[in-house]
Design a protein that fits this description.
Number of domains: 1
Shape: globular
Order of helices and strands: HEEEEEEEE
Radius of gyration: 15 Å
Structural class: mainly beta
Number of strands: 8
Helix content: under 10%
Distance between the termini: 29 Å
Number of helices: 1
Length: about 130
């Protein structure tokens, strides 16, 4: 069993790009700023001229925690695991999982890069791993 995201019309471009191995964030055509998660209006200027930009996938761990008990039955075989807020090189921050190292090795300020893991048929999720 896997936990898969709920897809809406608003989030569809994000999940479709993730399935193709690309990381995207929304971008405002009015003020030029980007953000995540997807919203119906720019959180900076409230503009509605919205688009999507592919980001490089490089980032830094802004905050993190090690999960030591399963918060969902689908995650029971993955504990312990790390949930982090990663600040992308382009500025937006996103909540994600950190893979590719022991949970105790993850630190605030650690350089990370996006990687993509299939979790169910037709569903690929972005994670981050140390660079």
């Amino acid at each position: 069993m896997a936990i898969v995201p709920g897809m809406t019309e608003l989030t569809r471009p994000y999940w479709e790009n993730a399935n193709a191995g690309r990381l995207v964030t929304q971008r405002c055509g009015t003020c030029g700023r980007g953000w995540h998660p997807p919203l119906p209006a720019c959180p900076h200027c409230h503009g509605t001229d919205l688009g999507w930009q592919e980001v490089c996938g490089d980032g830094t761990v802004y905050s993190c925690t090690v999960v030591r008990h399963a918060t969902h039955a689908a995650l029971a075989d993955q504990i312990p695991y790390v949930i982090a807020i990663v600040e992308l090189a382009e500025g937006p921050r996103l909540v994600t999982g950190i893979t590719g190292c022991a949970p105790g090795e993850v630190r605030v300020g650690m350089a990370v890069r996006a990687c993509f893991r299939p979790v169910a048929d037709g569903i690929t999720l972005p994670y981050f791993e140390p660079t």
